[in-house]
Request: fold
Amino acid sequence: MSKPLGHSNKIMKINLLLNKRKPEARFLDEMRLVLYDQKWYKSVKHPECFGVYDVYRRLRKEKDLRYDITVIPAKMLGREFPKTKGHSHSNVQELIWVLEGRAFYFAQKGQGNSIKDCYVIEAKKGDILTIPVGYDHLTINPSKKKLIMANWISEKAKYDYSLFDRFQGACYYYTNKGWVKNKNYKKVPKLKLKKPFKLMPKKFKLFIQSIN
Ligand SMILES: [Fe+2]
Reply:
């Protein structure tokens, strides 16, 4: 019986899997609206050729769930650490785990630019977490090494990128000077620090077992 990919130390297996597939690349020009360092952005000659991260979608499928892998290299975006564009899916939650490297998972909830709750989960290789329904969220690579992460999510997920596009990203940025509040938000609470799961929750454990 093969082990679940997300819990395997066999990074070779992941690399083999990824080598056979073509990722969807996210380029810097598509990230323009959510970046902290706009001055730096303007200095980049070809933002349409500057790859920020790669997503390998549907590496596996189970019922209405799909398994994706995202790779975020340690390439600074000016003064800001590399990140995903960020979105919300108001209808489903998402199960995430870190395969290689370190990650900050940032999540916020509110009404427009008035935020009621925001937190960051600091995670490392092997850690598992979920993103709750309705939270706008993004992933940051805060390290000098490549981050590889995986997720299971329903095909029914409806993605919404509009909030971060409208207010130039999330209500906090992670920069070379640490966390910085985004001034485009009217109300920003103190940033809470949360931890990933200590143990895999039973319902996810049963799911992972059932597909291997
Ligand atoms: Fe998501």
User: Anything to note?
Assistant: The radius of gyration is 17 Å. The domain at 9-194 is CATH 2.60.120.10 (Jelly Rolls). The chain has one domain: 9-194. The longest helix spans residues 11-19.
